[in-house]
Amino acid sequence: xxGYALPGKxxxxxxxxxxxxxxxxxxxQSRDNYYRAEIVIVERIVDPANVQERMASRVPESAxxxxxxxxxxxxxxxxxxxxxxxxxxxxxxxxxxxxxxNSGRYRVxxxxxxxxxxxxxxDGEPLRVAVGDWLADAGHREVEGHITIDRQRYLHVGVNxxxxxPAAASISPVQNDERIDNNAAETGDSDAFDTxxxxxxxxxxxxxxxxxxxxxxxxxxxxxxxxxxxIRETRRMRSEEVHFIDSPTxxxxxxxxxxxx
Length: 261
Description:
Blueprint: H1 8-31, E1 34-44, E2 69-73, E3 79-80, H2 93-102, E4 106-117, E5 122-123, E6 127-135, E7 140-151, E8 155-166, E9 197-198, H3 219-224, E10 225-236, E11 242-246, E12 250-258
Parallel strand pairs: 2-6, 9-11
Antiparallel strand pairs: 1-4, 1-12, 2-3, 5-7, 6-7, 7-8, 8-10, 11-12
């Protein structure tokens, strides 16, 4: 009836019912944007002498001021993460990582998966990565940097990783005698997957970023470790596809699966 007002008690009951339904509605809305994110970092087993990039004089900006952590391995092997990491048994990329390692051409450095809501206009914080061998003289891991996940209309993953070697390293040769250039991430390596791999080759090129002032980094780091290659790329992701972002010596597998139930 027009102009009819609920009695006070009935109005309070109606309001309480709405409040009770609100979390259910919000949960349904957020579930529409709920994903399992998976990231694997691998190292190509190649002789650094065959890498044509000359990056030893470059000193990237430090990621030490980044508080979010995807996976950071300390000097004692302890692992830190600000994510609630899922068991490896849950991950779609687990079998792909195993096939890469079994090929003898790659070494798996990190596997990470977690469940998270990525709503439209999500502006993710950078997440630190520190994996691979411990470089004792330099005081840090072989592969360090950060990875960022954003969502505008689509999910985007920004990879900013540095691959270091000791300044006077002598790494044993490997079976591949070919010289590796900035196009070394050819689709031949995508045979390891049984799902489409989207990638346009290496991102470790010197052209991807200007020289970074060495004054921005500790002198000890510059003196005791040298940059072998790096990745600087942001890629648009498609759900349910394996994406491969790489340089001549390291690669990043990314997979998102929408969770609807």
